[in-house]
Amino acid sequence: MLSIDNLHADYGKVKVLHGISLHVPKAKVVTLTGSNGAGKTTTMRAISGMIKPTGGEITMDEGAQAKHIDSHKIARLGLAHSPEGRRVLQRCL
Q: Which among 90, 71, 92, 83 is positioned nearest to 32, based on CA atoms?
């Protein structure tokens, strides 16, 4: 399970996330979609511990606060990134 409540994140003076909230049930696959600059990458970086959120709560399985867990341990809990545009998935013709 992943629960995000009122997540805020920034890069220095540039505020990127302004209170994102979402809930992902256990054993579900979820995608983030949106236009360029919408905050998809920043959201994933904040959830996975690559950047530190400036506000809000991120709760993983069993109530662990993700913003206090190292990113390699978050990955072991089952959170993964699959970036598009990097030829991650081979095109089938």
A: 83
Predicted TM-score (pTM) of the model is 0.77
Report the relative pairing of strands 55-59 and 2-11 from DSSP bridges.
antiparallel
Helix (H) or strand (E) holding 76: helix 71-76
The one-digit pLDDT tens for each residue of the chain (93 residues) are 889 999 999 999 999 999 999 998 888 888 888 888 889 989 989 988 888 899 999 988 766 677 677 888 888 877 777 766 666 666 665
Asked if CATH classification 3.40.50.300 holds for the domain at 2-76, the reply, yes or no, is yes
- Dihedral sign for Cα 50, 55, 59, 65, please: positive
Q: How many CB atoms lie within 10 A of CB 45?
A: 20
